Amino acid sequence: MSTERRQRVLELAKELGALTFGDFILTSGQHSSYYFDGRLLSLDAEGAALLGAEFLDVAKASGATAIGGLTLGADPIVASVAVESHHAGTPVRAFIVRKEAKTHGAGRLIEGPLASGASVVIVDDACSTGGSLFQAIAAAEAEGCTVAHVATVIDRHQGGSDEIRRRGYPFTALLESGEDGQVRVVET
Predict the structure, then answer these.
(1) Domain residues for 70?
(2) Cβ pair 188, 1 in contact under 8 A
(3) What are the backbone dihedrals phi and psi of residue 32, each rounded to the nearest 5 degrees, phi first?
(4) Is the CB of residue 69 less than 8 Å from the CB of residue 125?
């Protein structure tokens, strides 16, 4: 993991308009002095490469063999990690957790080559209350997997990361917001 790479993630998020400042109302109804649109970052070529490298480091450090999360925020991140892991010669499989199981076909809740018993990293672009992360954790554990780590691009410090840690999962964020409303790099 690299502080320099994380600094570039923050700079690029601002350049792309993925991180904007103002007065915003979040899904939770809470007010925020900034808005983070993770897809503007994770679907950008440089952003995808940066996130893929950073989250691959998290996967390798935790001993995970797969990485996944709830659709839609996790989709481009896990694909980037899979590609980066292939190039690095250390394959990490990617999977996506649906918001609800398919009602047709195989009725899957999880898409991708996830093996029961795998050690996994659960990711998302942001952590507020942790709802999306907890849904993905539950799905992976229901498949017999062990959650080795939970990671996000940004931690909004709205209770989710504290609850993740309280439940015994290691947690990493690349960026975080402070009480002053400023977004900064989490030092490695």
Answers:
(1) 3-185
(2) yes
(3) -140, 145
(4) no
